[in-house]
Amino acid sequence: MRNNIKWLLAAGLFASLCVHGFGTGGKGSSPTMEPANKMAAAANEFGFDLFARLRAEGREKNLFFSPLSVATALTMAWNGAVGETSTAMRRALRIGAATHAEINQASAELSSGLRGADPKIELTIANSIWMRKGMNFREDFLARNRQFFGAEAASLDFADPRSLAQINGWVSASTKGKIPKILDRIGAQQVMFLINAIYFKGAWKNKFDPAQTRPQAFHLLRGEKQIPMMSQSGNFLYSRGEGYQAVTLPYGRGGVSLSLFLPADGKPLDSLLAGLTAQKWQQWQTGFRSTPGDVKLPRYKIEYENSLNNALKALGMEVAFAAGRADFSGIAEGRSLFISDVRHKAIVEVNEEGAEAAAATSVGISTTSMRPPQQRFQFVADRPFLMAIHDARSGAILFLGTVVDPK
Q1: CB contact at 8 A, 233 and 293
Q2: Element (H or E) spanning 37, and its range?
Q3: Which of 258, 302, 333, 371 has the maximum number of C-beta atoms within 10 A of its C-beta?
Q4: Residues 63 and 7 sit within 8 Å (Cβ to Cβ)
Q5: Rounded Cα–Cα distance for residues 119 and 136 (Å)
Q6: What pLDDT digit, counting tens, does each position of 207-249 carry?
């Protein structure tokens, strides 16, 4: 499980655009929205698409990843895609017909806004490009990623074992050691790695008292286990809908929050997640109201690691992975480059003080409302639930996952 979670946090940021703006419709595509907010809405659409594919691969396991990280790394790679490959990546990433300049500028504005979301939380976003020494890469491709994504670029002798250590060292430093490495090896055919890393640390706006933490049964998909359950009473942003209840707990000054969605007692998590999309997520957000209540939340740590190849191919990006068919001539002359592997690692730890999370995504290129009642509520997360850490201003979902077995 630890390996699975680590890979997920490493993914990059993605955004959707249509002919007249970002997104495919709904609240997220309003022409009056700022480019950064449109990018956030579009990135969320991609994130929920990817969430559904990854969850289908293992419903009985914890899932935790960064839609922002995955989309960012893939968008950097898309800057070098041409023809059919570019079209397929646009469709999978929901970029639409917007220009490179529009997408890159919106990505830059969103990243800048997120970094300043809340002075009382720590949020860093870093990008890098690692190239095989001796190969010539297009300077315009490198320049776009330097300018809009702040990507560091370095040429290394990939045959030298120290190159692997240097790349992994950058990932470790960019995630404060939470993700020690993203790569296990460098293949003989691999000529470039585009990497995004995200690190988040935030203290609760209202901390949990460790003295109130008590062992309590958590109902697993099969059986139950005793886990430390944190407890807090007060006024919370709370929502209740058909078959679920939800609560939002802010960090710092409230610029970033953790939202928890708990299926009704006796209902499986699948019933809550059925048909979950960015549009449904937006509808859920309108239902929160300040309500007095009691919240119990497990103290947990999740690590995730995965190759995203199959999920991304299923989303329509298969041509980008096809050797001999993919066209990344925007990275280097010729049509011999393709995406060989997209790796993601992610980790989150939630306790009485707050939360710490990190993710890293590597793209390896080879030669690719209902208004809730105001009576006091009881929210006890003692069974599998959905979680999301999201930015209040842009709406960007930084991390998304399901907790089915707290560790």
Answers
A1: yes
A2: helix 35-57
A3: 302
A4: no
A5: 41
A6: 999 999 999 999 998 889 999 999 999 999 999 998 999 999 9
Other C-beta atoms closer than 10 Å to the C-beta of 316 total 16
Report the 10 Å Cβ neighbour count for 305: 23
The pTM of the full predicted model, rounded to 2 decimals, is 0.89
**What is the C-alpha R_g of the chain?**
21
Residues listed for the chain: 407
> Is the distance from CB of 221 to CB of 198 less than 8 angstroms?
no
Q: Are 179 and 345 in contact (CB under 8 A)?
A: yes
Per residue in 338-385, pLDDT tens? 999 999 999 999 999 999 999 999 999 998 433 444 678 898 999 899
Sheet holding 152-156, edge to edge: 152-156, 121-132, 190-203, 354-366, 338-350, 300-307
Burial letters 175-206, b for 16+ CB under 10 A, else e: beebbeebbeebeeebbbbbbbbbbbbbbbbe
- Provide the residue type at 16 as one letter: S
DSSP assignment string, 127-147: EEEEEETT----HHHHHHHHH
CA distances from 77 to 1, 131, 214, 235 (A): 28, 13, 47, 45
Distance, in Å, from the CA atom of 41 to the CA atom of 253, rounded to the nearest integer, reads 23
Query: Measuring CA to CA, which residue among 238, 232, 231, 244 is closest to residue 377?
Result: 238
Of the candidates 1, 4, 63, 62, the residue with the CA atom closest to the CA atom of residue 345? 4
CB 322 within 8 A of CB 335: no
Phi-psi region of 101 (alpha: psi -120 to 50; beta: other; left: phi over 0): alpha
Secondary element (H or E) of residue 234 = strand 224-241
User: How many CB atoms neighbour CB 257 within 10 A?
Assistant: 22
Rounded Cα–Cα distance for residues 182 and 359 (Å) = 10
Token pair in block for residue 49: 């698409």
- For residue 6, pLDDT over 50 is answered with no
